[in-house]
Amino acid sequence: METNRYIIDFYNQYDEDNRLTPQHGQVEFLTTMRYIERYIKPGDRVLEIGTGTGRYAHALARQGYAVDAVELVQHNIDRFRQNTQPGEQITIVQGNALDLSAFADEQYDITLLLGPLYHLYSQDDQRQALREAIRVTRPGGVIFAAYVISDGCLIDEGFNRENISVADYIRDGLLDGQTFAATSQPKDLFELVRKEDVDRLMEVFPTTRLHYVASDGCALLLREAIDRMDAQTFALYLNYHFATCERPDFMGLTSHALDIFRK
Ligand SMILES: C[S@@+](CC[C@H](N)C(=O)[O-])C[C@H]1O[C@@H](n2cnc3c(N)ncnc32)[C@H](O)[C@@H]1O
């Protein structure tokens, strides 16, 4: 599939394993883990769809949970296997979030979909990935779905870092010049959304939202400042972030958002 080619080429050369390692990357990791730990119970089974190199899957396996993982890109699967430590109860298979037919219905207590929705470009595909994640989750189980947020990325990658040209994006039809709403195609790699898009996507599912979280808040925008912080200041910054990451004020500023809902 041509769509997959773009994703495979990207992740073959991207250092996904170290994305969450710097202090600023820890903000997203620690926030996501904090919410998972709020809901996970001893003996729970976990599925991570689009596990990458397994940062979350391995962290949970090392806490003693049985974790199954699915990943599209062989390069990431190879790193995932290298990262597996003795004693982890963990499996990985190559697969696509759009078709989890290898997995039976209602098997998992905690289902993580932290990445595939970054790379699905139509509402039908996004809903199909969510439908599959919901199907394999037990009634009462909790699903974590992550998104890339357009305004946070435009402010940081566009206006701040100039890694992308906002003017070119408008010229090429990737951004609406009036509303600044984003549209992507597979060749653009990342699907950028706003909270209203996530709300619309979720309207058809009989699930209950538990939290909607600005998972990295301003961490990418402030990455140099956060990486300079000593341990005490970083601990204070994390306290600030945890106290504010569900505030509506932050939902457009964050680069990533986490939708947490119960089946
Ligand atoms: C940004 S990484 C996130 C990895 C990990 N879940 C995390 O949060 O650190 C996104 C991952 O999703 C994978 N992915 C993208 N589309 C997918 C799909 N349709 N099915 C399965 N995995 C997919 C990518 O190959 C990549 O490893």
Explain this structure.
Helices cover 40% and strands 19% of the residues. It is α/β, with parallel strands linked by helices. The protein has one domain: 3-Layer(aba) Sandwich (Rossmann fold). The longest helix is centred in the first third of the chain and has 17 residues. The model has no long low-confidence stretch (mean pLDDT 95). S-adenosylmethionine binds next to helix 1, helix 3 and strand 2.
Shape: globular
What structural class is derived from the secondary structure elements? alpha/beta
Q: What is the rounded distance between the termini?
A: 31 Å
Largest sheet: 8 strands, mixed
Helix coverage percent: 25-40%
CATH domain topology = Rossmann fold
Mean pLDDT: 95
Which ligands are bound? S-adenosylmethionine
What is the secondary structure topology, with strand pairs?
Elements lengths: L1 H12 L9 H17 L5 E5 L5 H8 L3 E6 L2 H10 L6 E5 L13 E6 L9 H13 L1 E13 H11 L5 H6 L20 E2 L1 H8 L5 E7 L8 H6 L2 H14 L11 E7 L1
Parallel strand pairs: 1-2, 1-4, 2-3, 4-5, 5-6
Antiparallel strand pairs: 5-8, 7-8
The chain binds S-adenosylmethionine.
Keywords: Methyltransferase, S-adenosyl-L-methionine, Transferase
Protein name: SAM-dependent methyltransferase
GO molecular function: S-adenosylmethionine-dependent methyltransferase activity
Characteristic key phrases:
263 residues, binds S-adenosylmethionine, transferase, S-adenosylmethionine-dependent methyltransferase activity, 8-stranded mixed sheet, S-adenosyl-L-methionine, Methyltransf_11, SAM-dependent_MTases_sf, Rossmann fold
